[in-house]
Amino acid sequence: MKCPFCGHADTQVKDSRPSDDGAAIRRRRSCPNCQGRFTTFERVQLRELVIVKRNGRRTPFDRDKLERSLNVALRKRPVQPEQVEQLVSRITRQLESLGETEVPSSVVGDFIMKALKSVDEVAYVRYASVYKDFRKTGDFARFLDAEGLDETDRS
After folding, report:
1. Which residues 6+ apart lie within 8 Å of 5 measured at CB?
2. What gap in Å lies between CA 103 and CA 51, rounded to an integer?
3. Structure pTM?
């Protein structure tokens, strides 16, 4: 494993253990060159997933991009990092269990929306505003009405 600090090609594993959800192996590593320490995660990958964008472009599925999207929606919300990791794992498993190697980005977006709604409604609406391309405040109101989120839920 290449050191993320100095680029040295050979790092040493100092500790290995299962992650909290048991879906990955967490490895603590150190670099003999710069003495930098970092953590890596090893996960089972059932198949190579390709995401088909709205414009037809195909890109490899990126678990880190999924995590970043969730973190943006959940910024400053009372959700623990472990919960985010569990959401990422759940969505990834859902995508892999579809049995398809190519998945439309809309399916990924729908899985994210469903996961966020179950965890934090504010993050759900934040994500929806980008995913559904809200342009005006009326777009928010229509979305909230369509989702059945009444005034008491909005506070």
Report:
1. 31, 34, 36, 38
2. 5
3. 0.66
